[in-house]
Specification:
Number of strands: 4
Largest sheet: 4 strands, antiparallel
Order of helices and strands: HHHHEEHEE
Mean pLDDT: 80
Strand order of the largest sheet: 1-2-3-4
Structural class: alpha+beta
Strand content: 25-35%
Shape: elongated
Radius of gyration: 17 Å
Helix content: 25-40%
Length: 114
């Protein structure tokens, strides 16, 4: 009984299991809590690394971009049709201003079909 209690507490308190960034809302909250307008690219990259978000930089759109795929994302399906025929992912865009500093971000669900 003691071992089961300890394992349950470890699983709840461990950030990998208990607090993963797997919904649009959690990702939005995390970015808003950790980045402010004017933050440098170094601060952005440090945040993304600390959040275990694999990203790339689009030099033509001046933004960092990342995708949380269906196997890691907790998507909210709005209909049975979407759930049956489409794969869901969460798109993350961290936009920069002309000076290369944090401007704003976009996080949303997207679907790809068969």
């Amino acid at each position: 009984m003691k071992i089961a209690t300890i394992l349950a507490l470890v699983m709840i308190s461990n950030p990998v299991w208990g607090n993963s960034l797997n919904t649009v809302e959690k990702i939005q909250e995390s970015i808003s809590a950790n980045l402010s307008q004017g933050d440098s690219t170094k601060a952005i990259e440090e945040y993304l690394a600390s959040a275990n978000i694999v990203y790339s930089y689009d030099k033509y759109s001046f933004r960092y971009q990342a995708v949380v795929r269906e196997n890691e994302a907790d998507c909210k399906f709005e209909s049975i049709f979407l759930w049956l025929f489409y794969e869901c992912a969460i798109q993350i865009y961290i936009n920069l201003n002309k000076q290369g500093d944090y401007k704003d971000h976009e996080v949303y669900q997207s679907y790809s079909g068969l």
